[in-house]
Each structure stands twice: as C-alpha cells, then as structure tokens.
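Why does residue order matter? Because the sequence determines the fold. Keep that principle in mind as you read this record.
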Amino acid sequence: MNLIQKSAIDFTAPAVLSDGKINDKFCFSEYVKGKCAVLFFYPLNFTFVCPTEIISFNNKINDFAKRDTEVLGVSVDSKFSHHQWRKTSPHDGGIGKISYTLISDITKSISKEYGVLHDESFALRATFIIDDKFVVRHQSINDLPLGRNIEEYIRIIDAIKHNEEFSEVCPAGWRKGKQAMQASDEGVADYLNSHSEEL
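Structure:
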C-alpha cells in the first residue's frame, strides 16, 4: 500500500506519553500539527529486536527535536503493556523511560489502515516520515529479523527540509552540508561530473 505524497492517516488511540502518563484519547494529527513526524510500527513489546530500535530512537531524540520532528512508536500491545515496558530497565530487557510517545493499537485498526498488519496479528517494522503539512514523504518496511537504521531517517528528514528550502534534489547518499543538485539535465550532468566516483 503506497501512501507516498498522500495525507497521513489520522487516528485517536490510547498512548503512553513521554512523561509516562496515559492519554486514552491521543490524537495523532493534533499532536504533530505543524511539525514533521516519524511514525514507526514494531511487532510487540518484550521481544528482541524491538527494544534495540526503540532505545536507538530514544538515544537520538535530540537530533529529531532539533529538526522539529516528533517520534512516535506504535504496536498492538495495550497501554498497560507499554507502561510496564517503560518501567523495565534496559538491563532487564525493557526500554526504560523513553522520551517519546508509544501508541496502543490494541484494536489493530491503525496497523491495518497503514497497510502493515502482518497475518492479522501484529505490525511489521514499518516506518513513515510525515512532513509538517501532514503528507507522507517516506515509507519503508523491514522483515521481522531486520532492525532499522535510525540515522537514515534523520538523513531523510534533512533531505526533505533541504528540498523544501532550496528546491534542489538530494542524490544517493546525500547528507546535510553536502552538495545537492538542480532537477535538470544540466544539474545531474554537473553533479555526476564531480561526484560519480563517490556514489
């Protein structure tokens, strides 16, 4: 299911906020209004790859904040399971007091609407980057054993913001501060003339 260039799908659901409080009527669009957002789905609490991803997002939360970007995790677990997992130390297989919101998709409706529900049971490792106009600009799905690279989402957010500010496109491997290019025959020729061996 392709959501690229479409409005993100809004929802209201129970969530555990960054301060550990539970909001039974957490509204996605209201929370991220005017900001970018990384909405990531993961299979289940108290599993194996999932806590590494959640902690990795948390370790880079300041990098997202500097880019005016909210990070939100979603699984089919209950709000109580989220709450308990936050109370469990990483040394004991938990995630600790992470600094962003975890959403409870216990009805599985959010995972289904985003097209990432696996076998009618749980969500795959799906990631959606949504811009400040609530439009989906990136989506990706990993198979269950494959953990995500959180740095890549930071790079993509930088590319989105660069494109919006300078109307330039961002070539393969582009990072903030590197040369981008004009979306024209001349632009690509100029870029490849000096960068093709680096690609």
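The first helix runs from residue 28 to 32.
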